[in-house]
């Protein structure tokens, strides 16, 4: 394999991994704190992508679109949290999984209703190419990678330096004790859910210029995102980052080695990891509840 | 009389289903019955053992492709094809189940999904030489006509799957009544207690997994014979949640839920998509509504009323 192909492959893998990370972090936080599996994050991802498209058509600025997508995703997630999840936090995981799947399905129907069935293109906001070791690399992909790292550090700062973040971290360990300290955990739940929704919207907005925006896009990445969360260990942020990049590289480099493997290899990797370590890379025993 | 008491529910349900054959177009009736068989496996896993599986298409594809390979490359008799589909489904689910049933419910759902995706790409890309990739295998002309019920003809095929489904429902009713069915419910509700009673949770789950997914494989091979065509689309990840949706729609863990659910789901899909393009919106909202309203589903809601209507006061069975 020549170096040029390898470098662009690695960059491609990293950018895909960044998108997966942004999507998976929300799921992981939701599971860690509220013990829900919120498949509807994929809906906020689609909402983010579609809003990016619409705002781009209206104003011609993709970045503004990404911003609008984040806001819209946050608003939709807030609504869903108020109307549905507030009632079902107490239920078991399977229950939340099915309900959130219903929301995702209904959302896809709504998207089809509003934007139609045709896939929509969103142009890349930055056309420039960067030369790395003689290989032309699209600058936009690097920007996506940088944004995902910024988000990681932002989340890290939020969880470690602010009172709310510390309460969320404590809640991941033991919700009842946090409640016992007089903290309103439902407020924490809402905050976490909206953060997750906004990050999913960001992922959708950033991903929209790399792929075509179509109503089924949420279902297409669903399997990959879940794989990232599972490999990393549900509820672990560091694990999610690591596994997102592992999955991204497996997808990208796997396709360089043998094209049909691109979609299959990550699933085989996940099966292998789960059979060896059923809780994922960084998942702890504590999360078993 | 006692025999009739046990059978009457099934007989009535299938009498109604047989009567529906007169009103409904044949492809629709066939679709409903095969879909009910498909859902039955998922329903058993979710309602009786407490495992939610987002990967049922994997086992559907196993059955379908086993039948398709036989009919395309080797033989002509569709009955042998179906038996082969069941056999391969049994073997695959026994092997896979031995690893999968150790996992927790949420991981289990995703590992199954992973298996469905792996099989999808295996059939679409890796084994494209044998499976002809997205073009699929066409073998409708290869099937020989069989003496009593000619499976090549949709009318005869309906009678065949009707009988198969009836036998299957009797089997599941028997399972519900048996000790094994009680043990399955036990692993769902309180596995520690079941272990305390001296049963192995692992082997009960394994058995249940094999039974459920062999049923799914049977549905797959029925699909294959019915359409005379199999393509990787049968296990497409985007359709992975269909059986789960239908299970919830019909009523989790109820015997007739899958039939009611498939009628409702296929009906809505066909009717609503005629009027409005986005039937997903309705299905999705309905799913959320059913879950919030106590996750009973259509049949689960109707059941108590029907029982009240059909039994005298004080003799209503649980």
Q: How many domains, in number, for the residues of chain A?
A: 1
Number of distinct beta strands of chain A: 2
Globally, the shape of chain A reads globular
Helix content of chain A: over 70%
Instruction: State which percent range the strand residues of chain B make up.
Output: under 5%
Query: Which H/E pattern describes the elements of chain B?
Result: HHHHHHEHHHHEHHHH
Q: What is the topology, as strand order, of the major beta sheet of chain A?
A: 1-2
| Main sheet properties of chain B | 2 strands, antiparallel
| Tally of DSSP helical segments of chain A | 11
| Range of helix content of chain B | over 70%
Task: Give the C-alpha Rg of chain A.
Answer: 19 Å
β-strand amount of chain A: under 5%
Mean pLDDT of chain B: 82
Terminal CA distance of chain B: 20 Å
Task: Give a quick rundown of the structure.
With 289 residues, chain A is mainly alpha-helical.
